[in-house]
Design a protein that fits this description.
- The protein is built from nine helices and 27 strands.
- The protein has 382 residues and is an alpha/beta fold.
- It folds into two domains: 187 residues, FAD/NAD(P)-binding domain; 139 residues, FAD/NAD(P)-binding domain (3-Layer(bba) Sandwich).
- The strands form eight sheets. A six-stranded mixed sheet has the order 5-2-1-9-22-21.
- The longest helix has 23 residues.
- The chain is globular.
- It starts with a strand and ends with a helix.
């Protein structure tokens, strides 16, 4: 029986495990230091206090137990692997052997090193712990604002979001939508929490379809979000963000969503990584010259027909299923990917999207479709 080790209970890792569970001739062990899978695509609702932690997490052990007996879970952190001895080593220095290794370690927030102090004064949400900090801080800001409104205090609170990509836009929209609802309840201007987006690119959702970009920008402005585009962050201190165009933005809390940095493992050999620390893999998602070591999800540089595909849950899921099939069916097919579309939540029951990656939809119809897609994803973990 072939032994497969999966490092990381990420989207890619768990979908690989689910697919491998269908094969009786493999033994699979999934390793992760956490006891849960964090549904990051729903983080915008969590940090904006719309969802609870239980809404954005899945108990990994329970999920794995629900699969076939050939798949097990160990809550343990893998630090390194050795391709010669075909072993992985845990943080406790315990070794496990494998025939096939799948690296699905995910990523963390990429704080640009050229910006002094940005990591010191901002916070990312790529882990549940960090997202929980943001959720608690935003909740406290709302409660404080309600108290101030009752006591005629006029001090404002600036929540700055660095990054106008998908995560930044969804978080800003959900926060602003909630605040607008609260303001109508309190019926006072003293309730003054400002949501501010900062990005060096010239548009929100850079690189996406123009219809998504324009509709999202319009919606953000309707929600009262202040948007600073076209100038990168130069520096940050404990009170201000300094942009390249000499604009200074005062802040009370700085949430940074500007990109990812892949999590890699120590190894006895050196393997090439790109500027995002993603492993450079071949067309079959294998490390070069290592046919039994596969890398999927955020940890892999996805190059298909010389085009780079940025990390998304959608491509991570496809990669997990592809690698599982390659291991069990000995398939020689190259990894390929065609997007089924994108949906952007923009607060409340409003969203925009491209169905089948070409048909533009917006408003409550797009919101309903996004909820259906999310629900279908969650049900796969039940």
């Amino acid at each position: 029986m072939k032994k497969v080790i999966i490092v990381g209970a990420s989207y890619a890792g768990l979908y690989a495990a689910k697919k491998l569970a269908l094969s009786s001739d493999v033994e699979v062990v999934v390793f992760d230091k956490n006891a849960y899978h964090y549904i990051q695509v729903e983080s915008y609702g969590f940090v904006a206090t719309k969802y609870k932690a239980s809404d954005v997490t899945v108990n990994t052990s329970d999920y794995i137990k629900g699969l076939n007996a050939n798949v097990t879970f160990q809550q343990n952190e893998i630090l390194s692997f050795d391709s010669e001895s075909k072993t992985v080593t845990t943080i406790d220095n315990e070794e496990f052997t494998y025939d096939e290794l799948i690296i699905a370690t995910g990523s963390l927030t990429n704080f640009p090193p050229q910006v002094p102090n940005i990591q010191k004064y901002s916070i990312g949400i790529k882990t549940l712990q960090r997202a929980s900090e943001v959720e608690q801080t935003f909740g406290k800001a709302i409660n404080d604002a309600i108290w101030k409104s009752k006591n005629d205090s006029k001090k404002s609170y600036n929540m700055v979001i660095g990054g106008a990509g998908l995560s930044g836009v969804e978080i800003a929209a959900e926060m602003a939508n909630l605040l607008n609802k609260q303001k109508s309840k309190t019926n006072t201007e003293a309730y003054d929490i400002n949501i501010i987006i900062v990005d060096g690119m010239k548009t929100v959702l850079p690189g996406m379809d123009e219809r998504l970009v324009n509709s999202s920008h319009e919606r953000l402005e309707e929600l009262g979000i202040k948007i600073h585009l076209g100038s990168f962050i130069k520096d940050v201190d404990e009170n201000k963000i300094y942009l390249m165009n000499d604009v200074e933005i005062e802040y009370d809390y700085f949430l940074f969503t500007g990109g990812i940095r892949a999590i890699t493992l120590n190894s006895t050999k050196e393997y090439a990584v790109n500027k995002l620390n993603q492993y450079v893999v071949n067309e079959k998602l294998q490390l070069p010259e290592e046919e039994n070591i596969h890398v999927i999800g955020d940890a892999a540089e996805m190059m298909i027909n010389d085009k780079y595909y940025p990390p998304t849950a959608q491509i991570a899921i496809k990669a997990g299923e592809y690698v599982a099939n390659a291991i069990t069916a000995n398939s020689s097919d190259k990894f390929d990917f065609k997007s089924s579309g994108v949906l952007v939540s923009l607060g409340g029951t409003y969203a925009v999207g491209l169905a089948n990656d070409k048909y533009f939809i917006k408003g409550i119809c797009a919101h309903i479709l996004k909820k259906v897609v999310t629900t279908m994803h969650k049900r796969k973990f039940i």
